[in-house]
Amino acid sequence: MTASKKTAVVTGASSGLGAVYADRLAARGYDLVLVARRADRLAALADKLSTTYGVNVRSLVADLEQEADVAKVEQVLTSDSSVQLLVNNAGLAKLRALAESSAEDARTQIALNIVALTRLTQAALPAFVSRDAGTIINVASVLAVHSWAISSVYSGTKSYVLAFSRGIQDELAKAHSKVKLQIVLPASTATEIWTEGVSGVPLSALGKDTVMSAEDCVDAALAGLDNGEAITWPSVEDETLWNQYATASATLFAATQTGTPASRYRIK
Q1: Residue 21 designated active-site
Q2: Is residue 165 within 8 Å of residue 113, measured between CB atoms?
Q3: Fewer Cβ close by (within 10 Å): the C or N end of the chain?
């Protein structure tokens, strides 16, 4: 995945997985467009990466929960032909029972995790397809396939990321496109989503052995990308588990393809 004079756009770049993605991609020779809300953090990271790796780094201050700011990033993706890679990393988790949550909690998670990711993917894809080259990395979560009592909205948004991205992968495969779309599904990762208290669950509440560092997570995800993986589970040792899950899902779907009600639902 070595690149020269190619640009990667990374959302949620001011900390956590996004900052590590920015570092690793700069080390691979990518120029960068770093997107996040915190201008001071972006400026410090941009200076560090440009000095360390000699790449061009642009900061784009944007709150992707907001329509106008999503449009700013869309403009970069549709107008800058050097963009070869998009990392849709920005995300939000507010983990609490729905009955105890506000409508704003749901709105912001949906706006960032679903709406922004969808729009930026859709903005980048046409140019990538027309060039038959480019990579999109959509960061989901292991909670895309599992829901807790406190994760109904968050799990719902990450299930969307998984289903949405798999549909695009099928679309690209049917077109015999060389464009890549990788889905990354991290488990608990040591980022500020926990330490800032936004999630509603402190990092200290998680089992120490269950939490992966942001560096290890991104390095595993990029290794998966280099190996041609379409779906990467950084913490799952037995890769056959996903194959079994996907096969069972396909079998279940195939079983739905009939116009006859199941026998257990027929009136006797």
Answers
A1: no
A2: no
A3: C
pLDDT at residue 128 tops 80: yes
> What region does 187 belong to: left with phi over 0, alpha with psi -120 to 50, or beta?
beta
CA dihedral 244, 248, 254, 259 (to 10 degrees): 180
Q: pLDDT tens for residues 63-86?
A: 999 999 999 999 999 999 999 999
**Which of 111, 168, 102 has its CA nearest to residue 138?**
168
- HSE toward the beta carbon, residue 266, CA cutoff 13 A: 6
Summarised one tens digit per residue, pLDDT across range 200-228 is 566 666 667 878 999 999 999 999 999 99
Q: Could you tell me the two tokens for 259?
A: 């116009």
The torsion of the CA quartet 164, 166, 172, 174, rounded to 10 degrees, works out to: -120
Question: Which residues lie across from 135 on neighbouring strands?
Answer: 85, 180
264 within domain boundaries? no
Single pTM value for the model: 0.92
Q: Is 263 contained in some domain? A: no
| Residue 177, domain CATH | 3.40.50.720
184, part of any domain: yes
| Residue 194's pLDDT band (cuts 50, 70, 90) | low
Q: Which of 30, 53, 154, 160 is catalytic?
A: 154
Cα–chain-centroid distance for residue 234?
Answer: 13
How many structural domains compose the chain? Answer: 1
Please say whether the beta carbons of 30 and 3 come within 8 A: yes
Is 248 inside a domain boundary?
Answer: no
Structural domain harbouring 191: 7-237
Residue 190: which region, alpha, beta or left (left: phi > 0; alpha: psi -120 to 50)? beta
